[in-house]
Amino acid sequence: MANFSRYVWLDGQLVAWNDATIHITQIGPASVSSVFEGICGYWNADARKLYLFHLAAHLDRLAQSMRLVRMKQTWSSDVLKQGIFDLLRANECTQDVYIRPFAFVDAPAFSVVSDSAARIIINTLPNPSRLHSGKVSHACVSSWTRISDNVSPPRVKASSNYLNSRYAAEEAKRNGYDVALLLQANGKVAEAPGACLMLVRDGKVVTPPTTGSILESITRATLIELCRNVLHLEVVEREVDRTELYIASEAFLCGTGSEITPLASIDRFVLGDGTIGRVARQLETLYHDLVRGIDPRYPEWRTEV
Ligand code: PMP
User: Fold this and answer.
1) Which domain holds residue 78?
2) Cβ of 194 less than 6 Å from ligand 1
3) 35: DSSP letter
4) How confident is the model at residue 2 (pLDDT cuts 50, 70, 90)?
5) What are the counts of helices (DSSP H) followed by strands (DSSP E) for the chain?
6) Atom of ligand 1 nearest to the CA of 214
7) One domain for residues 286 and 184
8) In CATH, what number is assigned to the domain containing residue 216?
9) Closest Cα partner for 217 from 179, 275, 260?
């Protein structure tokens, strides 16, 4: 599978890559109005099967994002699910894949609130998993503040929210870090530009609450479940102070694309021994085996294509 695929799904139909176009003047209004999802498909080479992880939860969140930006929903989750299956089969996906449903509204200008029905495009991209790569990341606390619920709600997976993410991510890279962590307007820790954060303190897993200027992450919920009911660890969802980042025994990011990304340091405070921590390592193994269906538990999390 090349970086582009043979087909995209556009408004109910499979359309050849080169034919899936919108007019150039629509780029701005279409992107500003848009909400989207990112779904991972994991290829199990032994079983020769592709499993989509938490497909239903992602389609529910897409519907929720569309509702919050008051988009008219033309396509039901069932139609989108079938569209994703059709697209993956047409694109002959036999490797790890990222699937992006993207909903937008046609509008002539930025300022026009169009009440036309949402259009949806779904595309697939090759996306090899980085689980067990041994890679650790160095994080910094961003000088940018995370957007908040009454400004540009992080709960909505809106493309426009990623401008706040971009400021932080770009600043981090420019200053020699791999990733940024953003604080809320009240100074408490929120999340990374494209992932949520978990810390380990005194053997407990600590993560900012879903009311703390974060996306209601599906991976975060998954890891909370695994920590509590498989690893039997205590998980606390609470406000996190900046200085707690520096004294945590481990910290890691979690997200559909980020999977589990261990942080070796935050603002150059080295966490633990600067390698992947014990909890992150256990979660990584569990997550790796669950997403590919190697571990048969939680079958409701996987959809076989
Ligand atoms: N926060 C942000 C800002 C994100 O973009 C993502 C990635 N979707 C996450 C958190 C993680 O969410 P999820 O686990 O649902 O992918």
Assistant:
1) 7-126
2) yes
3) E
4) low
5) 7, 17
6) 1
7) yes
8) 3.20.10.10
9) 260
